[in-house]
From TrEMBL:
Residue ranges of the TM segments: 6-31, 52-71, 83-104, 116-133
InterPro entries: DUF1761 (IPR013879)
Signal sequence extent: none
Protein name: DUF1761 domain-containing protein
Domain of life, per lineage: Bacteria
UniProt keyword annotations, A-Z: Membrane, Transmembrane, Transmembrane helix
Keyword Secreted (UniProt): no
Annotated Pfam families: DUF1761 (PF08570)
């Protein structure tokens, strides 16, 4: 992993795009369903656990994801190859790890579809951004 050749501006942009996707995914698209599956009310989300800290740490973790994705990206990726690389990582590593955890924890399949689906799209989006501009 060659961190010296990473374009940090593009990594931050890819992370920001993934974060926006997460806001849409866990907001208007699937927010209420996700909340129901994990048992959190609007009040609990707003008032428990210091939401600003949670969002800040979540963004930093997303930057780490984008950085590692950038470090594993082929040098001549392009947008399509970058999206494909992210899709493979999202499906092959992240969604399958969620799937194993959700099987043993007995979480509903629909929650796996929400969380796994987001991560697959997130990595494909970050890969596309990194491939196009990295």
């Amino acid at each position: 992993m060659d961190l010296g050749s990473i374009n940090w501006v593009v990594v931050l942009g890819a992370a920001a795009m993934a974060f926006v996707l997460g806001g849409i995914w866990y907001g208007p698209l699937f927010g209420k369903s996700w909340q129901g599956f994990i048992g959190l009310t609007d009040e609990e989300l707003a008032n428990q656990g210091k939401p600003a800290v949670i969002m800040g740490v979540a963004f930093l973790l997303t930057v780490v994801q984008a950085m590692v994705l950038a470090a594993t990206m082929p040098d001549t990726a392009g947008i399509t190859a970058g999206a494909s690389h992210g899709l493979v990582i999202g499906l092959g590593f992240v969604a399958t790890a969620f799937g194993i955890n959700y099987l043993f924890s007995r979480h509903p399949r629909a929650l796996f579809a929400i969380d796994g689906g987001y991560n697959v799209l997130q990595f494909a989006l970050m890969g596309a951004v990194l491939g196009a501009f990295g």
